[in-house]
Amino acid sequence: MKIRIRLTLQFFIVVATILIFSMFFVYNRFKRITDNEYYNNLKTKAHMTAEMVLHDGDLDKIEDITPQNDQEGLPISDNVIIFNSKFEKVFAFNRNSNIAIPFNIIDFSTRENTYRQGDIYYYGIPFKTQQGSSYYVVASSFFNSKELMDLRRIITIAIILGLVFVALSGFFYTRQALNPLFSIVTQMDKLDMAKMEGRLKSSQSKDEIEHLISSINNLLSKIQSSFTFQKMFISNVSHELKNPISVVLSQVDVVLSQSSRTVDEYRNTLTSLREDVKEIADITENLLQMAKMKAEGFTLEVNRFQLDQAILECQSKLLRANPDYTINFDIIGHPESESDLEVTGNEALLKLAFINLMDNCCKFSPDKKVNVLIKVNSELTALSFQDNGYGIKAEEMEHILQPFYRNNQTVNIKGYGIGLSLTDAIINVHKLKLNIQSQVNVGSTFSIEFKK
After folding, report:
1. Pair 248, 271: CB distance under 8 Å
2. Residues 407-443: pLDDT tens digits?
3. Is residue 66's pLDDT more than 60?
4. For residues 340 and 332, is the Cβ–Cβ distance under 8 A?
5. 140: closest CA among 41, 62, 68?
6. Which of 400, 325, 390 is nearest to 364 (CA)?
7. 3-state secondary structure of 429
8. Are 316 and 386 in contact (CB under 8 A)?
9. At a CB cut-off of 8 Å and minimum separation 6, what does 32 contact?
10. In contact, 360 and 419? CB cutoff 8 Å
11. Domain boundaries in the chain?
């Protein structure tokens, strides 16, 4: 069943139930008021008749005071009957009525009683004369209110018309309510899934539909980012891996083609091959790390560790591989204890990010120098990497975090264009932000803030 039909039925059932119960309540309330009023009239009639009949004294035999000219016209159900203390009938206002009283008056001899049988209403009251004799008076009358009949007719018509109106309004209401969803479905059908460039139009409302549109657009952005990364990954990986693999194969072919080579020549060739294979391994490892963090379901394992100790380990490791680098490290502020320099995160991944930032700063600076600073205060711990390099142009700032991106100034410097994008992925997965400030021919500063 379609949502529109289901919502219409649900709307119809709910509103129809409320309508019917409301009408039933109105009718029942009005009928109760009418019945009470009619019972009060019967009570008054019974009391007045008893006062009139028993005013002169007690009765010991059945009497009839029905006017002679009303003997034929009086309804057979309309009557006032008086019973004595022995519950014998001693008076009947309408002796033509042979209808028996439908309740046992002995049970109600000391209290008032109302009773209804079909359209005939009864009201019984105990009555005492001035002489102290006890009687029981029962007034009865046929009642079929024209007002109640008219009200039933009006309510029936109102319910029928109301149900028709509810059905029609429910149909149009659900259509109006589902129009935004139909619009979303139509727009989704028109999206070019190959390019993933289109987005749903905002509903300009602050409701659940706008939240749904926003969620879908965010999902589309994530899918587009994944598709873009996948396409770029495939195209660039094939290119970046092809060059070192080709070099390795060429050197192997050269070695195999020459039968007479010295030990030193073989050693030099193997050393070159080792560097090329290491380059391939580094590229593969970085790409695998980046793909792992961008994969769905990636779980980040975090722990508390000493930031200064991690920086010193990264400094030592990078200097062993690149003795010509200069890495200055300093702490600004006055940490009171070692815990002031503790941060939360995945230590292995963050160390990889720190090494990449140090390596980038040294690699792209003429003096191969980087200044690493830790600033400590009561709210956060700030880590920054400063170089005196070529700087980054404003128009290139949005591209430098993309994998395999290399600008014209650094194209002759050895690198893969992966380190900075991998660093950004590591920082993002920690829900932190990599802030970059740069000035051309002056240098760049990369900073990360860890909240306490």
Report:
1. no
2. 655 555 565 566 788 888 888 888 899 998 988 888 8
3. no
4. no
5. 41
6. 390
7. helix
8. no
9. none
10. yes
11. 3-149, 208-294, 303-451
Start-to-end CA distance of the chain, whole Å, equals 54
- pLDDT score of 71: 47
SS3 of 364, please? coil
CA distance 86 to 188: 91
Give the Cα-Cα-Cα angle 191, 197, 198 (nearest 5 degrees): 45
Q: Is the pTM of this model over 0.85?
A: no
Paired sense of beta strands 63-64 and 89-92, if any: parallel
Q: Is the pLDDT of residue 79 over 60?
A: yes
| Closest to 76 measured CA to CA, from 56, 98, 58, 48 | 98
Q: CA 296 to CA 230: how far, in whole Å?
A: 14
Q: What is the dihedral of CA 42, 47, 48, 49, to 10 degrees?
A: 90
Do residues 401 and 232 lie in contact, with contact meaning Cβ atoms separated by under 8 Å? no
Q: Which two tokens stand for residue 2?
A: 């379609």
Give the DSSP H/E element, type plus range, for residue 332. strand 326-332
> Regarding the domain with residue range 303-451, which homologous superfamily does it belong to in the CATH classification?
Histidine kinase-like ATPase, C-terminal domain (3.30.565.10)
Q: Which CA distances in Å does 83 have to 101, 129, 284? A: 12, 13, 113
Q: What single string gives the DSSP state of each residue in 29-57?
A: HHHHHHHHHHHHHHHHHHHHHHHHHTSS-
What's residue 419's pLDDT? Answer: 72
Digit-coded pLDDT (tens) for 86-139: 888 888 887 666 667 888 888 888 899 999 888 889 999 999 888 888 899 999
- Cα(140)–Cα(236) distance, rounded to whole angstroms? 103
SS3 call for 375: strand
**Residue 187 CB contacts under 8 Å (≥ 6 apart), including other chains:** 198, 200, 201
Longest dimension (CA), the chain: 158
Please give the pLDDT value at position 89: 85
Q: CA 124 to CA 79: how far, in whole Å?
A: 12
Which two tokens mark 422? 């991998």
May I ask the CATH architecture of the domain 208-294?
Orthogonal Bundle (1.10)
Scan for tokens 């992966």, then name that residue: 418
* β-strand partners of 436: 446
Distance CA 44, CA 302 (A): 90
Mean pLDDT lowest for which of 61-65, 128-132, 294-298? 61-65
